[in-house]
Design goal:
Layout lengths: L29 H34 L7 H21 L6 H28 L11 H12 L4 H24 L7 H36 L4 E9 L3 E8 L5 E7 L2 H5 L3 H18 L9 E6 L5 E6 L3 E3 H8 L4 H20 L2 E2 L8 E6 L2 E7 L6 E2 L25 H4 L6 H17 L9 H10 L15 H10 L11 H9 L9 H11 L13
Antiparallel strand pairs: 1-2, 2-3, 3-5, 4-5, 6-8, 7-10, 8-9
Helix pairs in contact: 1-2, 1-3, 2-3, 3-4, 3-5, 4-5, 4-6, 5-6, 10-12, 10-15, 12-14
């Protein structure tokens, strides 16, 4: 779906659009993440064995009177062994999401670094016989860890810095225990290599991120290549794309992966099935007023996508926001086309559940303007008569739909059928005629409560344009609290719209003239240039 005047943006990293502000695994190749539990578990085991071995060597040196007994060192060795075993055990849990595993690794690097450097600093401050000034094991730990468990560049740099800070932190802790600070030159040679190592550790993360982005862009989304972002929605982003072989532009919807990354077990499977359900529901519909689906899939990094026809026009939300309420004739024409799409969907037992102006698109198709397309079947469910597995594919505690267009029966968790979509379509009609929502409020709960208990103000009292009584009665019937008081189905609503007496019907000529006058950049006689 293209919009005039949108700035060009570069394609997103395939690590997933609309990621959280501080994503641990952003920019990491999925192949590396899949193998990360094995590598992290192996390092945890080596870490534990190393501390046990170090404890035995220290014990032997103590009995041979080579070193003094230091309980702090023994405690650090015990803690290191326990932590290594814990990391090994956690990494073997198959239910742990990759994102969570990366954060386990971050904690392991920082705390493990402290356990490594604490005994070293104890040796320096206590002036023990084995004291040496040189590169710490901490520097080696910081440098190698990004290769063991790759993370996003920001996470790698930040973690390396905090791990390097564990050396002065350990020395400060020892100072509080009564040990004097070492001379400045000793401090410099003790601390500086660790911070240099933290800087060097960012290089592998940057290289891996660039390589991964290059491979991802080369692969694209199946046979499609992303070109320009068109918009951001509740479930992800929509991009203009081109087919590698066909001269046919398309729109690709990328589904946000942050919720999938955080989900695990049954919830993750539910979200995956929900994506597949939306794609299959859209593909099964053949109405010319339902957006056409070309393809869908899941990339190797877990990004869901589906490819649909590219539309040139405006959604009804932006249409009214930019140009104000529409005439009664145009409202009838737009709603009748939406009814055509819903009529087929309801006949197949599919309920959209998220009808709203932003999901109804008026566009140019061939030589016709104001052709309505129903978008985003992301919340589609089977009605109660066709209930099956699809009816259970919702995330726990989730209420589907948009509050400003939510039917009362959806808000209270009642039985839902096709008349729920007609209620939402009545809200859309109200928006088209008045430029305002049926009910507004300061909070989501307030809006929902008004839908449950208040009667709407007739649209003729809130519109500057004339609204025929028959059209107003039809809109208010759609907005009835009781589903039984609404039109029986989308076909009945479409017939009611056709029977509304209009001072001037909205024709193809009216539509073409309006678009050329108000949106000339989209109304050019030639179709948009292909890449």
């Amino acid at each position: 779906m293209t919009h005039a005047g949108r700035p060009h943006e570069t394609p997103p990293r395939a690590s997933g659009p609309a990621r959280r502000l501080f994503p641990a695994a952003a920019g990491v190749a999925p192949e590396l993440l899949r193998d990360a539990p094995r590598r992290l578990g192996l390092v945890g085991l080596i870490f534990a064995v190393g501390h046990v071995f170090y404890y035995l060597i220290s014990l032997l040196q103590y009995h041979l009177h080579y070193v003094r007994y230091r309980p702090e060192r023994v405690i650090a060795q015990y803690a290191g062994a326990v932590m290594g075993i814990a990391v090994f055990w956690i990494s073997r849990r198959r239910s742990l999401a990759p994102e969570a595993l990366v954060w386990v690794g971050v904690l392991f690097e920082v705390v493990g670094g402290m356990l490594l450097v604490y005994p070293e600093n104890l040796v320096v401050l206590a002036h023990l016989p084995e004291a040496r000034i040189g590169v710490s094991w901490l520097a080696v730990w910081i440098t190698l860890f990004p290769l063991i468990l790759p993370a996003g560049t920001a996470v790698t740099v930040t973690t390396g810095f905090f791990t390097a800070c564990s050396s002065p932190a350990a020395m400060a802790l020892l100072h509080l225990q009564g040990h004097p600070w070492p001379p400045p030159n000793v401090q410099m040679f003790t601390f500086l290599p660790n911070f240099v190592a933290a800087g060097l550790a960012s290089y592998p993360a940057i290289v891996l991120s660039r390589l991964r982005r290059a491979v991802s862009e080369a692969r694209g989304m199946g046979s499609y290549r992303l070109e320009e972002r068109l918009g951001v929605g509740g479930m992800g982003e929509v991009w203009r794309a081109s087919h590698r072989m066909l001269a046919r532009p398309a729109a690709i919807k990328l589904i946000r992966t942050d919720s999938i990354t955080q989900a695990k077990g049954e919830e993750a499977q539910t979200l995956l099935r929900r994506f597949e359900r939306e794609a299959n529901a859209t593909a099964s519909l053949t109405s010319p007023h339902t957006i056409a689906l070309y393809d869908y899939g899941v990339t190797e990094d877990g990004t869901f996508y589906y490819v649909m026809e590219l539309l040139h026009g405006l959604d009804l939300q932006r249409l009214v926001e930019r140009f104000g309420p529409v005439s009664a004739g145009r409202c009838v024409a737009l709603l009748a086309q939406a009814c055509d799409s819903l009529e087929e969907a309801h006949a197949r037992g599919l309920i959209h559940r998220d009808i709203k102006p932003a999901n109804l698109y008026t566009c140019r198709m061939g030589g016709r303007w104001d052709v309505v397309k129903v978008l985003d079947f992301g919340l589609v469910v089977r009605d109660h008569q066709a209930a099956g597995e699809e009816a259970r594919l919702t995330v726990p505690d989730e209420v589907g739909g948009t509050p400003a267009f939510m039917p009362p029966e959806v808000a209270v968790g009642g039985v839902v059928d096709g008349r729920a979509d007609l209620y939402a379509l009545g809200c859309v009609a109200y928006w088209l005629l008045t430029g305002t929502m049926v009910f507004e409020g300061r909070t989501t709960l307030e809006v929902i409560m008004r839908h449950l208990h208040e009667e709407p103000v007739p649209p003729s009292q809130r519109s500057e344009l004339p609204v025929p009584q028959e059209l107003e009665a039809l809109v208010l019937a759609c907005l009835a609290k009781d589903p039984a008081a609404r039109p029986a189905d989308a076909a009945a609503l479409r017939r009611g719209l056709a029977a509304v007496p209009l001072a001037e019907a909205w024709t193809d000529d009216h539509a073409a003239h309006w678009w050329r006058q108000h949106v000339p950049e989209l109304a050019a006689d030639a179709p948009p240039a292909l890449p």
